[in-house]
Amino acid sequence: MLKIKKPGLLSSIQDLGRTGFQKFGVIASGAMDPFAHRMANLLTGNAENEPTLEITMLGPTIIFEEDALISICGGDLSPAINSVPVRSWRSIFVKKGSELKFGYTQSGCRAYLAVAGGFSVSEVMKSKATYLRAGIGGYEGRALKAGDQLVLGTPSDQSDRMTEYLIQQLQNQSFLESDWSITPELIPNTESNPFIRFTKGRQFELFSKESQQKLIGAAFDVTAQSDRMGYRLKGPALSLSEPAELISEAVNFGSIQVPPDGNPIVLLADRQTTGGYPKIGQVAFVDLPLLAQAKPGDKLRFVEISHEKAQHLYLEREWKLKELKQGIYLKTR
Amino acid sequence: MEYNLHPLGDNAVLIELGNEISQEAHEKVQALTAVLETQPPDWMTEYIPAYTTVSIFYDPLLIYQLSSDKLSYDYVCSLIKPLMEGLEASKAADARVVEIPVCYGGEFGPDLEYVAKHNGMTPEEVINIHSSGDYLVYMIGFAPGFPFIGGMSEKIAAPRRESPRLKIPERTVGIAGMQTGIYPIETPGGWQLIGRTPVKLFRPHDDSPTLLKAGDKIKFKPISLKEFENWKETE
């Protein structure tokens, strides 16, 4: 069991989202940075959809009431175990009684804590993701509070092998980091002010030539009115070449829509299922982690790529991930 | 059936079946979703129907494994072709009618007076018109189980509030322009609030998590405050 001593700013249980219920208007939810979430699970021997703890901006303090194999991926929120800094993007064996403390973000915005076996919470509509506004899923449908107790699930055989491997090298320390980690080339760059690759949205052509060029040339601020639902950006106003009444239709993770005030909104994990604003662009899925790791005050720049290119990038990353998975498996066999 | 295809991100295709909100487009959407419900393609992860479109989501890696010589989007488009062939718009005749009891006015409907005044009638007249209409659920969106309803009389239309309320209680019935709707969960919103139903529209722990679905017909039935308080879900 893990005990929450301090909850941090917004720490919630997330998985890869609630699939199959958007037709009922039920939002997908799930990890804002699905890549970091999957990596954290991979490094603890979990299935990719096991729930992890999504930690935002200012992290929690957690007491381990049992031994556990963990991994922290995503933004750098200066994690430390018993006051000793630990590295992200690798496996860590933690002994009972240890205290894992996160601080304020050093780079990025969100970190994901996976624990071998996952967190034992019940499924609502086939997902363990917290849907904050409806108060369902995750840990009692809400963000964590001090005093919460997270029960762990049963670790997989792979998790057990990884734990054994680390225990063999353990001497007197209260924790041990693995000598394997995610290849640096696979880790998204979470430096501030990223370039975000996007493809043309379905209503791109309805925007004035000037607005089309501004989206590509200008920098946009991530405003304080940005959350898990979407990032509200501020930059040069974007407008349609002539007014158009649009009919509500489905939106997706990373859709860039523009309401009448001209300030684009990038839709993220807690997006509504449908929207009636024109979509000028769509963020390439491989760059969703860059968005999830951007925080208010950061500047975003958009770079256009073709839909073909976006699909190739997606597949390439999946293949690299597969190789990585196999590598870890072989190492601990 | 005629249609156009558009990409929607790296894992979805949007099928456009019409370009205006109409019974005809709705019937096409219903026909396609009926097929997706009864014979879901094994490559589909989920779908989202709307007024004139149906968006189908898929796992690009799985699609790649099914066809390694094509990009996932192109391959999915080729799979949609046989799906659309021979598809005929379904008739709305067999639509389900759902009766929704509403306690109008009072603390549940603080804007009923405004809607009445705006249209030069009494609150009772607004209630009569609202509860005698034939309504169709075109789509579900915005919030879990939130119905986009067509068929409200323009006699009781009213503009949205200038500044939205921060919290609208769940199950509140409202009017915005020519539309009427019901808030299934507490959300901010700018609609004129005219009443509340005792019936839960969002049931996250049930097999079918929402009371309403696209294609349903709705009848609103006025009930008293006493009936509202004593209401027990019969299901």
Automatic annotation (TrEMBL), chain A:
It comes from Cytobacillus oceanisediminis. This is Antagonist of KipI. Pfam families: CT_A_B. The keyword Nucleotide-binding applies. NCBIfam families: urea_amlyse_rel. Keywords: ATP-binding, Hydrolase, Nucleotide-binding. One of its GO terms (molecular function) is hydrolase activity. The keyword Coiled coil does not apply. Residues 23-320 form the Carboxyltransferase domain.
Automatic annotation (TrEMBL), chain B:
This is Inhibitor of KinA. Residues 3-212 form the Carboxyltransferase domain. Pfam families: CT_C_D. The keyword Hydrolase applies. Keywords: ATP-binding, Hydrolase, Nucleotide-binding. GO terms for molecular function: ATP binding; hydrolase activity. It comes from the Bacteria. InterPro entries: CT_C_D (IPR003833), Cyclophilin-like_dom_sf (IPR029000), PxpB (IPR010016). It comes from Cytobacillus oceanisediminis. The keyword Hydrolase applies.
